[in-house]
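This protein record is not my work; I was only asked to verify it. Would you go through it and say whether the fold makes sense for this chain? Here is the record exactly as it was handed to me.
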Amino acid sequence: MAEITAQLVKQLRERTGAGMMECKSALTETKGDLPEAEVVLRKRGITSAVKKASRSTKQGLIGSYIHHGGQLGVLVEVNCESDFVARTDDFQGLVHDLAMHIAAADPQFIRKEDVTPTALEKEKEIQRARALAEGKPEKIIDKIIEERLSKFYEEICLYEQPFVKENTLTVDQLIKTKIAKLGENIVVSRFVRFKVGDAPSAGSGGGEAAVPEPIQA
């Protein structure tokens, strides 16, 4: 088995455009075989998803999920490229599953890139204090913080979370499999999660507020 080095991961990323963790996973599965790792990524639909990522998504659906008892609800906007795909059972099923996932997992942001600088700096301060309390050497604390941020992103970012119905997949990987199957770019644009007695928690890309405006009677 070839060692899964950073250089090997970089090579696969350059050849496929896939993310670092996806490349590392594929290389681990294929025991470091670069061509086979490319095949694995293609089977997962990841390379085709990367190619479609820049395509415009102006169609789609707003999905909803109300948990049993009516105490918890979610609205989510999922976009695709055409009305034809938006009407398919596969796309509608994805929208429903994403709404249900948001209800269960309570993400705060859609992607890592959407995490606000304030939230990120606060988490770094927490992890620095924790590492110092554990007696970690000062020279490795920054590295420890970066490693622990992966868990932080997994907890609060929709795309990084394990999918609640199949936790071997992240939400990002789930969406990419649908992109490969349906042949169009698919993105989550925004969501809002309501819980009785709490202020609504909203997630969106690019800092856009997702809380709906009140309707006047």
Remarks:
- The first helix runs from residue 6 to 16.
- Residues 91 and 201 are 24 Å apart (CA to CA).
- Residues 206-217 have pLDDT under 50 and may be disordered.
